[in-house]
Amino acid sequence: MRRRGLPDPLLVASDGAPGLIRAIEECLPRSxxxxxxxxxxxxxxxxVPEDVWPEFKARAAACYQAASPALARLLRDDIAATYARDxxxxxxxxxxxxxxxxxxxxxxxxxxxxxxxxxxxxxLFGEERRRTKVIPHAFGERAVLKLIYAALIRAAERWRGIxxxxxxQRQLKVIRDEIHKDFAERNAPAASPTVTTAPxxxxxxxx
Length: 207
What we know:
Helix content is about 55%, strand content about 5%. By secondary structure, the chain is mainly α.
């Protein structure tokens, strides 16, 4: 992207793999990282009893789909207060990487549904696996790249575009400016401490 003169994307979605998170933070420091909510909900499901899951799921979904990050944090705190004693591992999972889980709430309302998971990318992975599984040893790197490119073209024919209004364009510009400001503040050189020295006395002042 940089060779083509493109800026870092505003948002990058990934699962919770530590290597991916580190790569995003180091290679795309001017991007907001979104934790895939489909993966996060599966993680939560594995830590909640089946009889409690419908209620917990509804409250977690309301938290992740709140109107604003501030409201999402309030709902998270309410879930923690309700379940901390009986479901400590689920509450810890909810709290883990929480800011990345609600990163999409900074963006225009009409964009949030399609930027909060990695489902679109994973469907492409599924198409690639489905094709290579039948003849796993017949592909080199170049052939696999061509295969994935063809699968991407085919999938793109079924995509529904998102119309971005002028108002949303202004919103996105504000978000990019905020990201650049945060990046500049994080990477600003530390101020050197001011060294004060006592004034020297001239020879005529000495006794």
